[in-house]
Amino acid sequence: MLYNYSKFLSFLDEKLNGFFESQKPFICCKEGCCKCCENAEFPFTKIEFDYLMLGYVSLDEKTRLQITKKINELKEQKKNSKEKIFTHSCPFLINERCSVYNYRGIVCRTFGLMAFRKGAKSTIPFCANIGLNYSKIFDKDKKTISSKLLAESGIKTDPLVFNIDYAFLISDEYAKNFNLKFDVPKPLLERLN
Ligand code: SF4
Ligand code: SF4
Q: For residue 41, which of 106, 90, 99 has the smallest C-alpha distance?
């Protein structure tokens, strides 16, 4: 199953690389930018989590200990939290870098692009609000992409929405092409129990 999943990831990465490349004028992602890893629940299916763990066991002992310490602290914070949804910084984020980059989850790979959502409004990366991806053409008041700002920016590239919503990528419809079946995603911290 993990072999099929690694094939799935190679396919997905190739697609995503092309999508990021096509949106270059709007993209600010670079090594060391990690705002998208700092405040979420991070959904993981079992296969994604098992793959992530392969990355974890390949790390040096010092890094593994740092991660374990963070996980234990987060579990404690979650226990004392009154919030219905407990969002947090990802414990695998070490020195502002993903310590398990090649093994990161599906949702981590799609951060930064605009995603089509069936029956709902497409998602614009949250970091458009903080001067990062798509911020040049993002109308903060209307919370949408602005054709006026696009014209003023002089950028000749069209901002595109891609079919990369997490729910779609882990759906049976998509996964069957790789002989995969994803289970229901759970927040990362729950997987780490
Ligand atoms: S998606 Fe946004 S926050 Fe995340 S790396 Fe890219 S620019 Fe930075
Ligand atoms: S696994 Fe890596 S990329 Fe994904 S949220 Fe954690 S630190 Fe960020």
A: 90
